[in-house]
Amino acid sequence: MTDFFEGIDPIRYEGPGSENDLAFRHYNPDEVVMGKPMKDHLRFAVAYWHSFAWEGGDPFGGQTFLRPWHPQDSMETARIKADAAFEMFRILGVPFFCWHDADIRPEGENFAESKARLDEMIDYFGVKMEDTGVGLLWGTANMFSHRRWMSGAATNPDPDVFAYAGATVKACLDATHRLGGQNYVLWGGREGYETLLNTDLKRERQQAGRFLQMVVDYKERIGFQGTILIEPKPQEPSKHQYDYDVATVYGFLRDFDLTDHVKLNIEQGHAILAGHSFEHELALAASLGVLGSIDMNRNDYQSGWDTDQFPNNTPEVALAYYEILKAGGFTTGGTNFDAKLRRQSLDPEDLIAAHVGGMDVCAAGLKAAAAMLEDGKLEALRAERYAGWDSEDAQALLHHATLEQCEECVIERDIRPEPRSGKQERLENLVNRYL
Ligand code: 3MF
Ligand code: MG
């Protein structure tokens, strides 16, 4: 075990009036919201990479954190890191965690050694998960950090890298399956380009589509019951990333006949980078039937990159959970905190406090979203705005009419459409009543 979090007690719910930094003010795990406990709506997960693998470096400076598991170059320190991680899961009471292969074991001399190390850590996790009851929300492969991935993984111009990517995803999907993972995620940080001058877009799209079909085929062969999730992001580290946003990924899934086999893991910060709101991406994914899970964080609105900060804006989070609840809530998905401390937040307690705050913001947002949905006013006003389409004539117009018939009808009935107020400000005022 580790004493990294020594002296920090399990976090308890103390209510909105609590002044205790290390207590929940809104996240009351067993409190029933819309018929089920809050914890089963939110399904919180800790991101191993940000909380335990990241050493505090940024493009202009190196390590700031000094942890008992540093240097992260041996299986011994990999186990110490795992001990600290499960200690934090226990303190926070989170039901899940997520990992990349590279987060949990040091890279080996070759693929075989890397795989053996991964399997050793999966055995170690298995015992801890059994002991603690913490589940795996999703596993994934880091196919973006090592230099072999610099020109892509599945979309790489070198077929050897494509093969290495296939072997890597197989190992990580097997590991996720072995741990009873609820999902498997693919974020293509290098599946894109730095310059069109050396890029064959058609070829790379074909490779990416074929690769995803191979992943789905394998998932079915091993009987993995979790959901395969693509995580959209428009750029960073690539100049342009192919899985740009929900709409782009959906078109890609359609092209390769995968819309029934793959859903999306949607990240707040990535939605913003793509020029959308988080709730836009969630609402669109829900309308297309591909809403799977979320990476919860926030970006700094003054910086044009993915700052992966913990969420602290309840109104924004409420609109996100409104779309999730309206879509029926998570099934295998959940709320993964793809969020990291600022590199100056050095203390173990900072890691705990960051998650406590993030969990509380999500819980407050969930409760506001549930109140909005149960109250029904917003949906009633939305339905009223489209009521004109409910008539038989309107449905016949939509499903059977021709343009000639439109013209005939408009002239015969001398139709002169009269615009009606969209009531946006009143709707925004209504939302604020729940916050
Ligand atoms: C990058 C990300 C990634 C993905 C992770 C899982 C490192 O902006 O969000 O986090 O979430 O690779 O797909
Ligand atoms: Mg993410």
From TrEMBL:
Query: Which annotated residues bind Mg(2+) 1?
Result: 231, 267, 295, 338
Single GO biological process annotation from the record:
D-xylose metabolic process
Question: What EC class does the entry list?
Answer: isomerase
Keywords in UniProt for this one? Answer: Carbohydrate metabolism, Cytoplasm, Isomerase, Magnesium, Metal-binding, Xylose metabolism
Q: Which Gene3D superfamilies match?
A: Divalent-metal-dependent TIM barrel enzymes
GO cellular component annotations, sorted alphabetically? cytoplasm
Which reaction does this chain catalyze?
Answer: alpha-D-xylose = alpha-D-xylulofuranose
State the EC number(s). Answer: 5.3.1.5
Quick one: which residues bind Mg(2+) 2?
267, 270, 306, 308
What's noted on cofactor binding?
Answer: Binds 2 magnesium ions per subunit.
| Active site as annotated | 100, 103
GO MF? magnesium ion binding; xylose isomerase activity
Q: Which cofactor does it need?
A: Mg(2+)
Enumerate the subcellular locations listed in this protein's record, separating them with semicolons: Cytoplasm
Family, according to the entry, reads as follows: Belongs to the xylose isomerase family.
Assembly behavior: Homotetramer.
Q: What is this protein called?
A: Xylose isomerase
